[in-house]
Here is the input.
Amino acid sequence: MEKQANTQPSYIGMWVTKDGSVRQELLPNGRYDEARGTKKSAYTGSYTIKGNHIDYVDDTGFSADGEFRDGILYHAGMVLYREKSQP
Here is the structure.
């Protein structure tokens, strides 16, 4: 029996702080890429989502978590909003 993916497609995409200083992209392959200020790929790693909870494991071994509530991602003291796609 094939194992189901552990991600929810509805959360895949770019998440951005209100001031745009942090941009975190949740990729469909279970990886993330986070830019800080002008530094691209400041943090990269993998993530898993269960329900509205997200667990991160950075490529350096650091781990963190977050929660999706009402279409907003709360992660490590930050509030990230889904970036709207361009028309």
Observations:
- The chain has a mean pLDDT of 90.
- The beta strands are 13-17, 22-26, 31-36, 39-50, 53-58, 63-69, 72-75, 78-82.
- The two ends are 40 Å apart (CA to CA).
- The longest strand covers residues 39-50.
